[in-house]
Design brief:
The chain is α+β, with helices and mostly antiparallel strands and 253 residues long. The protein contains 7 helices and 5 strands. 44% of the residues lie in helices and 12% in strands.
C-alpha cells in the first residue's frame, strides 16, 4: 500500500469507529482495552490523531519534548463521536498538504512523513476493532490492510521499547518465528538474538523456523496486537510452543 491509500484508509477506519460508537452507551467497557470504556477509547484515538496531525504539520526533525496539543474536547462525552470525525477531517487536510517523502523524525524505521500516516491508520483500525468487539460486532478487516498492518507492526516493534518495555525481553539464542497467512500470500520471519530481535524476511518463499503461527491475515493482525490469543482455534501452531509463549507474553502494545 502507498501513502495515499494509507490516508484514505485512515478516513475510512475513523468513519467506521464513529459509526460504531455513535448512539452507543459510551460507558460500555472495552474488554480488549482493560479499564477503558468506549468514551475512553474514542477520546484516546481522537487525541492520538490530533497529536500525529500536529507532528506532521510541524514536520518535526527530532523527538518531541511534549505531547501536549490543543485537543478541543467536547463539553460532554456524547460529543466525542463528532469530535473524532472532525479531527479526522483535519488530519486529511494535513495529509493532502504534506509530501509523504518529506524527512521527519519517527520512532520507527521509516524516517519520513509517511510513517505517521501509516501509524495513524493501524492505531485507528485496531481501536475500531476494539469498539466493535465491545459492542458484540465481529470486526471485518480488509485483507490487504491486514497484511500491510502485520508488516508495519513487525517492522517497527523492535523500536517500541519506550512505550512497550516488555519488548526488551524478546531475546533468545538465535531462534526464529514464522507468521504465515492461510488466506493468500503473506509470510514474515522474525529472528530473536541474545541482543534483540528483528524482522528478517517478509512475503517471500517459506522459511524454516523454530516455531510458526498460521492464520488469516486479519486474525494474525489482531493476534499480534494482543486482541486474540495464540491458543485460539483460529491459529495453527507449529514447533517450539515455549518460544511462542515467550513472544506473545512480551510483544503486544
Amino acid at each position: 500500500m502507498n501513502p495515499a491509500q494509507h490516508g484514505a484508509a485512515v478516513a475510512a477506519e475513523t468513519a467506521g469507529l464513529v459509526a460504531a460508537v455513535s448512539g452507543a452507551d459510551l460507558s460500555t467497557p472495552v474488554p480488549t482495552c482493560p479499564a477503558w470504556t468506549l468514551a475512553d477509547l474514542t477520546q484516546h484515538i481522537g487525541s492520538v490523531q490530533r497529536w500525529f496531525t500536529e507532528l506532521l504539520r510541524q514536520r518535526i526533525q527530532q523527538p518531541p519534548t511534549s505531547r501536549e496539543v490543543d485537543l478541543r474536547l467536547p463539553a460532554h462525552p456524547d460529543g466525542l463521536p463528532d469530535w473524532l470525525a472532525a479531527g479526522a477531517t483535519e488530519a486529511a487536510e494535513v495529509f493532502a498538504a504534506t509530501d509523504p517523502d518529506a524527512p521527519m523524525w519517527a520512532w520507527g524505521v521509516d524516517q519520513h512523513a509517511r510513517f505517521w500516516v501509516r501509524r495513524m491508520l493501524f492505531e485507528t483500525l485496531v481501536h475500531r476493532a476494539d469498539a466493535e468487539l465491545a459492542l458484540g460486532i465481529p470486526p471485518h478487516i480488509d485483507r490487504e490492510l491486514a497484511v500491510d498492518g502485520i508488516d508495519e507492526f513487525l517492522t517497527n516493534l523492535p523500536f517500541a521499547s519506550s512505550f512497550a518495555p516488555l519488548t526488551t525481553r524478546l531475546r533468545a539464542p538465535d531462534r526464529t518465528i514464522r507468521f504465515s497467512c492461510t488466506d493468500g500470500d503473506g509470510e514474515w520471519l522474525v529472528r530473536l538474538r541474545p541482543d534483540g530481535f528483528a524482522l528478517v524476511a517478509r512475503r517471500g518463499e517459506p522459511h524454516a523456523a523454530d516455531a510458526a503461527v498460521r492464520g488469516t491475515a486479519a486474525d494474525l493482525l489482531l493476534l499480534l496486537y494482543g486482541r486474540l490469543t495464540h491458543r485460539s482455534d483460529a491459529f495453527d501452531l507449529l514447533g517450539d510452543r515455549a518460544l511462542l509463549a515467550h513472544w506473545f507474553a512480551h510483544s503486544a502494545f
